[in-house]
Structure formats: C-alpha cells, structure tokens
Amino acid sequence: MNSVIHHTFSPALSSSASSLIGQNKFTEIRMQNVYLPGKGSSRVAVKCVASPSVEQTAYTTKVARNENLAKLQAGYLFPEIARKRAAHMLKYPDAKVIPLGIGDTTERIPEVITTAMAERAKALSTKKGYSGYGAEQGEKQLRAAIASTFYQNLGIEEDDIFVSDGAKSDISRLQVLFGSKVSMAVQDPSYPAYVDSSVILGQTGLYQKDVERFAKIEYMRCTPENDFFPDLSNVARTDIIFFCSPNNPTGSAASREQLTQLVQFAKDNGSIIVYDSAYAMYVSEDKPRSIFEIPGAEEVALEVSSFSKYAGFTGVRLGWTVVPKQLKYSDGFPVANDFNRIVCTAFNGASNIAQAGGLACLSPEGIKAMHEVVGFYKENTKIIMDTFNSLGFNVYGGVNAPYVWVHFPGRSSWEVFGEILEKTHVVTTPGSGFGPAGEGFVRVSAFGNRENVLEACKRFKELYK
C-alpha cells in the first residue's frame, strides 16, 4: 500500500530546491520513484511542494538623497584611476606597474621634520608636554612662521592665516562658506575638486553631455593657443573665480602681467578669487608665487596652500588658507569673520603633531630640506619632458610645476591613458578628466622614485619610437 505525503518548504531554506524553483515562483517538485519505508508493508511516496517565497525588500528611510550628488559624473577622477590601476594589476599580476598618475609624493619626509613630529608625539606622554584641543585657526607660532616665510612684505599677518588639514579640505570649507547661490568660474582644465564641490553645494545645473560640462559654471578655457591663461574678455562675470598657479594639471605658471589682469578683472566684476598656490615652491622663473604679490589682490582674493608637495605631507595632512582683513562682502562684512565661524564649527584644528612638523618645515634647515625635495621632483620632470620632446610630442608645463602636459592631437585622452597602461604598465592621468579643454592631453606626474621614472621613460620610448 502506498500513500503520498506533501512536504512544504521555503526555497530560502533549501539551496537545491531554490535553484529549481526560481525566484518568487510557485513550483511543485516531484521526487518520482523515491519511497520511504512505512508501517508494515506499506511505502510512503514523497512529493515536495514549494511554497511561494516572500519577496524581500531592503528597508529605506524617508530621507531623500541630496539631488546634487546625483549630478556628479562617474567617480571622482583619482579614485577612478586607482580602480583602473587595480584592475590592470589583477589582469597582469606579474607586471611592474609604475604610478605616474595621481600626484602622490614618494620621497621620504626630511628627518629634521619627522624628528620634530616624533618629539611632539613623545611629549604628549608627559604631564608637561600634553595638550588637548588647540586653536581652530592653528598654533600662533606656526601661523607667524607661515606669514614671515611665504608672505613677507606682502601685507599678510599671522591672524590672516588659518592652518588646516590640507588645501583640498579648505576648498570644500570655502564652498560651504560661499553657499549654494553663488556663481562659479574655473580654469578649463582644472583640479576636479573645484567643480565637484561646486556641484555638491548646488551651485550648478545638470551635466551637459554634449559639451562635457556642468551648466551654470563658467569654464575659462586654457590651451596652448592662449598660453594657458584665459581670454578674460570672453569670460562672463561670476561671484567666485577658482585659479591655480602653477596650474594642476597643465603645469603652467601665470606671469605677473597675467595675474594683474586677473585681479583687475575681479575688481571690475566685484568677484572673489580663490587662488590655489599648492605648487608655488616649484616656480623657478620670475613669476609670482602668491596672488598677494599683485597690488590690490588683498581686496579681491584669498589663497589656499599646502605642505603636501613640498615636504611629502600628502599623508600627514597640513595646509593653510589666507583670508585678508581687507576682503569683504558686498555689505562690507569681512569674509575672514565668516570663514573663522566655518572653521570653528566644522573643524577642531590641525593635528598638533602635524603642526610641529610644519613648524620644522619652516626652520632654516627645514626650508633647505624642502627645496631639496622639490629639486628632486623637478629633475624627474625634466627627464619626462626630455623623453616626450625626443619623441616629437608637443609638451607643456614641467618648468614651474611637477606635471608634464603631453598633447596627443586627434585622440581621446582616456584612449591614450588605456594604451599607455596596457602597453607599458605605466599609470598616467587622462586630460579630459580635468575638463573638456583637457581632451587630447595626458598628464604625467613627476612624483615617483628615480628608478621608476627612468624605467617609465624607457617604456615610453619603446611604445612611441
């Protein structure tokens, strides 16, 4: 005698059944000719019947996403390059990949600087040497040293200086300071953080794919044809002008005459210049290292800078922003007062250990050591420039900056980036990632140890000979 038992189960509890049932479907599975012993001579046939699975949905809050973040295109440029590099290393696990893309320093921090940081860290273990919260604006001694080292005779005082955890962080704080209603201009090409932070704050419209730019941002085109300085007669009036010199990515440094034009342009339009001088120590020609070398700039400009590319502080994190007392809003209120409020609200001050390192940087021995570090990278830059020049490329930058801007006319920047990575295992940066005017260019960074730079140049010569 045979009898039938229906056994009901959920696919979630049986992986084998789940694979047969399929997601969210009611399916009967028969196990034919499979019997289990019953009482006496009877046998029990087993029929497995699947119950419908309950569709699982993730819990969501009732908070809407910041619509401005949805405007951003793909990932931020440098993490995107890092992902492509990681994928390449998986594809070629035995290849020696040379990173000349992201502008990260490679040479050791001079010992005079690390010694000062170590001593400050050690002192924190003592009753006398311990310190907690410091001034949000930075330690007085360091602010004074920055003023006397970089802004001597330029009218900048120590209380105009706000010490921070790096220029990039200050760029975002400045965007918060200005708010969502201001209009913005950037060099094209330019450091991506200017545009991305502007988008996040809601200062822009949507991304326009046909022209590869965001609406409501004034892109100041900088190309070899205009010596990488925008034709200001064709630039619309904006509230804020981001300007980097020596420039990242093109490596071009603006002349005194050009910056004088920029300051006058800002005055004529009542604009504020955010001047990024993160590479000022690389200037070797007779060109300004600070916007405040230009008469009247203190009324229309502020300046952000950093120890990252001078002393190898990319991981230590230390920079500063100069906001002169003379810089005022349309109602006469000092910009520095509001920036001080932003800093006190959103920041507890730079690490006291990092600030000890910064103070050591500005000692006579530290300044000498920083110039040696900068000199090393400038030698790397010359090697890279000589290589591409010998191959017949049009090469820009390099003289006053640690970046070489190489032109590949008629070609996609990402295509060239991929070609170089695939065929030489060298990571560069596609120019179009810095703005539409960067299309057809590739940026090669001089931040690397000498062995890697020489090997990369050897591979470039083999590829493009």
TrEMBL record:
GO biological process: systemic acquired resistance, salicylic acid mediated signaling pathway
Signal peptide: none
Keyword Isomerase listed: no
UniProtKB keywords: Aminotransferase, Pyridoxal phosphate, Transferase
Keyword flag Glycoprotein: no
Co-factor requirement: pyridoxal 5'-phosphate
Residues annotated as domain Aminotransferase class I/classII large: 96-460
GO MF term list: pyridoxal phosphate binding; transaminase activity
HAMAP family found in the cross-reference section: DapL_aminotrans_1
PANTHER family: AMINOTRANSFERASE (PTHR43144)
Cited NCBIfam families: DAPAT_plant
Family membership: Belongs to the class-I pyridoxal-phosphate-dependent aminotransferase family. LL-diaminopimelate aminotransferase subfamily.
Protein name per Swiss-Prot or TrEMBL: OLC1v1033306C4
Protein's organism: Oldenlandia corymbosa var. corymbosa
